[in-house]
Design a protein that fits this description.
Strand content: 25-35%
Structural class: alpha+beta
Number of strands: 9
Largest sheet: 9 strands, antiparallel
Distance between the termini: 34 Å
Radius of gyration: 17 Å
Helix content: 25-40%
């Protein structure tokens, strides 16, 4: 998708949001106090990606900062909930959660904004930001270890979800599906990593979290 096509898609999406909100009345913003309830349970995550052994191995209430690991600032969005990506967006609270088993790594996160308009603006800015790293490589640097090189695939917006696939060079097909969507005033930020991950895994997680947001 080139920048002209992306601009048209975003304009149409914004128009649809505007018409819907005028006809039905916009719902009130989701309170930050319910963010934990929006995340999927390990059982739900396992079902969403077609595995059984995923367990929670970390939770948080703050943004991550891997800017030292990814010098290329245009590509830092490839890890969810990065401080340098959300800086200046107006976000007010986040709940990231990390799960893994012997062959999968998953991060699911929700990020609260003051209003649905603020979340929509972040989504639009992200769609343009992600294009800057489309179809090229970036390095993940860790002290004392060889650089990990990742190839970023094309950027797509499918049913309101922004997505791409990052494939680690020389890692036997290990890849991460990345997705970002917004529902009301909540951004849904997800990564699913595995060898040849199923394309729909990350969308299953995003859609189920969005459904929980809509019920608040």
């Amino acid at each position: 998708m080139n920048m002209r096509q992306l601009t048209v898609v975003l304009a149409l999406a914004s128009a649809c949001i505007f018409v819907a909100s005028c006809s039905r009345g916009a719902p009130p913003p989701v309170a930050t106090g319910v963010l934990d309830r929006l995340l999927l349970s390990p059982a739900e995550i396992n079902t969403a990606i077609g595995t059984t052994g995923l367990q929670v191995n970390g939770t948080g209430t703050a943004m991550d900062d891997n800017s030292a690991n990814i010098p290329d600032k245009d590509c830092r969005f490839n890890l969810p909930t990065q401080a340098s990506v959300y800086d200046g967006s107006g976000w007010i609270a986040t709940r990231p959660q990390y799960l893994s088993d012997s062959s999968h790594v998953v991060q699911q996160a929700v990020v609260s904004f003051p209003s649905a308009n603020d979340a929509a603006r972040f989504f639009s800015a992200s769609a343009q930001r992600w294009e800057a790293c489309s179809m090229r490589q970036f390095h993940f640097i860790a002290p004392g270890q060889p650089d990990k090189v990742w190839t970023v695939g094309p950027i797509a917006i499918t049913n309101g979800t922004l997505s791409t696939t990052d494939t680690q060079v020389g890692a036997g097909g290990f890849a991460c599906q990345r997705a970002l969507a917004v529902s009301n005033n909540v951004a849904i930020d997800v990564a699913v990593c595995a060898v040849n991950p199923a394309h729909d895994s990350v969308f299953n997680i995003v859609d189920q979290i969005a459904a929980k947001v809509a019920k608040q």
